Amino acid sequence: MSFFKSPSFKYLKNLLIGLGASVVMIGALGKLNSTSWGGMMITAGLLVEAFLFAMLGILGPEKDYYWEKLYPGLDKYHSHLAPLTAGETSGSMPKALNADVVENKLGGMLSELQSMSKSLGSLKALQEVDFSQTGDQLKTMNNFYTKMNDAVAALNSSVEDTKQYQAQMASLSKNLTSLNGVYGNILSAYNVKG
């Protein structure tokens, strides 16, 4: 009976169930498509499945959880389970050792509770902070950003004005150059006549 509880048997059982189901599905596909091998495959798959279901019915279900390892005596119908601190539980563990185990676990829980208490104290300190002036500070910051945006807009418009000024100066420079040329021609003509 120990073979039926071994991991290799459980693997083999799952493998056979999966393969049997796949043979049935392939046989059903062959039968639907009216192939010659479809009837033989579906018959073989159903026989394998029938054998496996009969075997599973005979073997019975397995226990999933082994609580009796954690609580000795749990699997006995008339057993009286004692608390961890009352007497011997497994026959070899004295009461003092059980008390030490419980005390160690309680000590660990106590340190976790102290850590949580410190965290909650920090949250309470944050709750007690006075945020009444933050609205005024936000308004002041908003005014600052508004004025900053206005200044940047004015700077952008002055950049545009500067570009127009440069264009006008370039045009003026061309006109002066032309006038200088005309003036030079007039002087040259005057010098030739005179």
Can you describe this structure?
With 194 residues, this protein is mainly alpha-helical. Among the domains are: 3-70; 156-194. The chain is built from 5 helices and no strands. The protein has helices spanning 7-32, 38-59, 67-70, 95-127, 134-193. Helix 1 (7-32) runs antiparallel to helix 2 (38-59). The longest helix is centred in the last third of the chain and has 60 residues, at 134-193. It is elongated, with a radius of gyration of 48 Å. The termini are far apart. The model has no long low-confidence stretch (mean pLDDT 78).
Q: What's the number of helices? A: 5
Q: Tell me the major beta sheet.
A: none
- Count of individual beta strands: 0
Taking Cα atoms only, what radius of gyration do you get, to the nearest Å? Answer: 48 Å
Helix content, binned percent: over 70%
* Outline type: elongated
Q: What's the overall average pLDDT, rounded?
A: 78
Alpha carbon gap, first and last residue? 141 Å
Concise synopsis of the structure shown:
The chain is mainly alpha-helical.
